[in-house]
Amino acid sequence: IEGNMQFATREAAGLFRRSLLSTPSVVRHSLRSHGASFHTAALSTAGPKFLSAKCVNPVFRVSAYGMATVGSDGSDSDFAPKAKEPPTSTDRDVQSEIKEMVSNRKVVLFMKGTPDFPMCGFSNRAVQILDHHSAAYGAFNVLEDMDVREGIKKYSSWPTIPQLFVDGEFLGGCDIMMEMHESGELAKILTDAGAVRK
Prior knowledge:
Elements: H1 2-21, H2 25-33, E1 38-45, E2 50-55, E3 59-63, E4 68-70, H3 94-104, E5 107-111, H4 121-132, E6 138-141, H5 146-156, E7 163-166, E8 169-172, H6 174-183, H7 185-192
Parallel strand pairs: 5-6
Antiparallel strand pairs: 1-2, 2-3, 3-4, 5-7, 7-8
Helix pairs in contact: 3-5, 4-6
């Protein structure tokens, strides 16, 4: 029995190798580059442009162009994208929190993302302007707190992000910061506030 099983295994492996040799080289390269171990009988043609390869874990759908995506038919739901629900609080006083934030630091930038990884072009420009002036500032990522994201718009009566506060006063968004930078007014405000690093 053991000899028959070894023969069957060798025969199945040979069939699998021959089926791989008959697939386009781009697809073979893509399948190998994912380092997955394939079931012999799992390789099948799903259509003229797609090759479905069922791996031990997970399932990839590989196009003839070598693109692989997780979450195709038969994939585990753990690999599917999930939306993150923002925490909400009904008894939270966001306006007081914002007032405390802008009062405790000389310069505060409410932005999308962080200074190291801005998540929008306007926030990126605001960071570049402040960095150009060597400003010492605190940054708040509004993408991590929807209450503050909406609350800051109400607090400043300004509809967009980013928003810059110096000494507790709202200066403006990206366009106003750019105008103040170009006129030299921003450099004076930051210097007067003692917010320029030496």
